[in-house]
Design brief:
By secondary structure, the chain is of the alpha/beta class. It is built from 9 helices and 11 strands. It has 2 domains: about 80 residues, Rossmann fold (3-Layer(aba) Sandwich); about 130 residues, NAD(P)-binding Rossmann-like Domain (Rossmann fold). The strands form 3 sheets. It has a 6-stranded parallel beta sheet. Helix 2 links the parallel strand 2 and strand 3. The chain is globular. The termini are far apart.
Length: about 290
Amino acid sequence: MSAIIMDGKALSEKIREKVKARSAVLAGRGITPCLAVILVGEDPASLSYVNSKEKALAAAGMESRDIRLPADTAEDALLLLIGGLNRDEKVHGILVQLPLPKHISEEKVISAIAPEKDVDCFHPVSVGNMMLGRQGFLPCTPAGVLALLREYNIPVSGSHAVVVGRSNIVGKPLANLLIRRELNATVTVCHTGTKDLARYTLEADILIAAAGMPGVIKPDMVKEGATVIDVGVNRVEDASAKKGYRICGDVDIAVAEKAGYITPVPGGVGPMTIAMLLENVALAAERVKERS
């Protein structure tokens, strides 16, 4: 058996076209959805990711407020900048690219962003709203995973979903979303303290790998026919590759011969993360219109 590939790139294009149409409607009402993107320093991975976001925003008919700051920017200066963006009515979303330089508190920066502009869903109020099922944004990567499950008609209600990883960005929010009544999965969360990881992954109808460890999920750890979502994006040294490294996920590629459905890396969850960010920016702009 060979798994059906869950094409995140194709689905993300469909979502982007819908977002573009929503942006056009807003433009007709005099509103251009705008995301302020702040990058502190010149981390190559962050720079590449920010550039991808900015291109996606432009293609969707949205404005990107591109703010690049030197690595030695003072924490107070960054907080002051965020305060100004919070008050700027033309800015609908604020995104501060992580990680930040060590002298800047990520907690302070995230908490400084107004919840109604927190399109990453990192602010404590945003997280609380998500936990309680209240109106707010959904975190981009978990929302992208759920969109893929819907697109491929994967049965979630009554399924056993195993999430490998407990990060605040993916593992924890995804587990919370999957146990909502409308999804109704039974969820197990595994992490670095889990003994005998395979014991749990072998029981998974839906296995989500978000551990940040290349190839940690092997074929003998996956149930025949399971749906496998690989959130991992890892750089592995490879002398034969043009750049000296290759990108791989948390799931061994041989798992594709055993799973029923599987996401590729790249081209699976990655494109969905940016697509869901665009959705959040459009939603933020629409809510401003509703309030006015």
